[in-house]
Amino acid sequence: MTSPYEWLIGVRYLRAGRRSGRNSFISFMSLVSIAGVGLGVAALIVVLSVMNGFERDVGARMISVLSHIEVFDARGLMRDWQATARDAERNPAVQAAAPFAEVPGMLLQEDTMKPALLRGILPEQEAKVADFMKGKNAAALDMLKPGAWQIVLGAELAKALHVKAGDHVILAMPSQQSSLNNVMPQTRRFTVAGTFEVGHFEFDSGMAFIHMQDAEELLHVDAPIGLRLRIADANQAPQVAQALKNSLNGDYLVRDWTQRNSTWFAAVQSQKHMMFIILTLIVAVAAFNVVAMLVMSVTDKRADIAILRTLGARPSSIMKIFMVQGLLSGLMGVLAGTTLGVLIAWNLPDIASGIEHLLGVQLLDKNIYFINSVPSQLLWSDVTGVVGVAVALSFLSTLYPSWWATRTNPAEALRYE
Prior knowledge:
The protein is α+β, with helices and mostly antiparallel strands. It has two domains: 4-61 and 264-414, no CATH class; 67-259, no CATH class. It is 58% helix and 17% strand. The protein is built from 16 helices and nine strands. It has a six-stranded mixed β-barrel with strand order 2-3-7-4-6-5, surrounded by four helices. The protein is elongated. Keywords: Cell membrane, Lipoprotein, Membrane, Transmembrane, Transmembrane helix, Transport.
């Protein structure tokens, strides 16, 4: 246990009086070390919060369009999808099911051509499994009628094609009669019934919805290709998918949303870990300031150390004095940085919005980052990890200067005093 006098002297040295220029410079170095550790900790908390918010927002918008779980019949089309839906809904985690078909192709309007994935749906069933079908999105998709050849475009896709509700677009897709020697596209004219927007650029710019009957006619089939399932907790999709695979009667292929987007989420996690490592170096560099400050303090306090040794202080007590001084400096920086980082992380969307408004710039390009606003999600587990690493680095930075202080020779230090 550290004796009280060691703490008192360590705190006093941290404050380093202003009786001389050297003491003033040591005090300045102490402030620099505190500020350096604080800024490093704050930067680390803010960046991790942005990464968390990015993963949360993009993931939520992605899941709102994609299926929690998709079920396919290994034999091909799912002709009796109602029976399969009933079997799936026996699982208590499954809340709803909806059939779907997908038609890849190119949408044309005058001299503009854009690739798109058309999803054939039954609007009344799709509303049960798709989170984005609310408000204007639901109103647009409810307009789809069988045989009317209507299409609902993503907002960015409609903007790129320069069309609005009531206009017409042409779908071009591979023909069933195409061959290597005769590649003839199949075309169909659609009337734009409306647009939808989920806030995810990939879907808003490359996806459209048509009625299931129209999709089946385009594909020359008489049944949907699979089922989309909604479950109570999207995070449990892998476990529920495995349970369905074991319980469904028949030969079915079951795929959950984590399999479809595993590469993207793995990349985000990898980036988050790399950012943590890189930004930890900022705290490490700031810890070198603590080393420099303690080395200067030890040099300045050689006479004090000699007097303490003469009065009977043990080398371990001398070491503890300077460890207290350095560790308290680091802890003050960690506390200040944590407070600053948490406050910024909580208010980052508003801060970013204010900067965008003030400078007239867009911080995030939705063509690149899928979203157009700066997200933030503060996780206390991240804060705990950052604080732990910063405190550990601050502690390690005190060891060598404190040990060096114990090597002071009292007779040599007091010779010219």
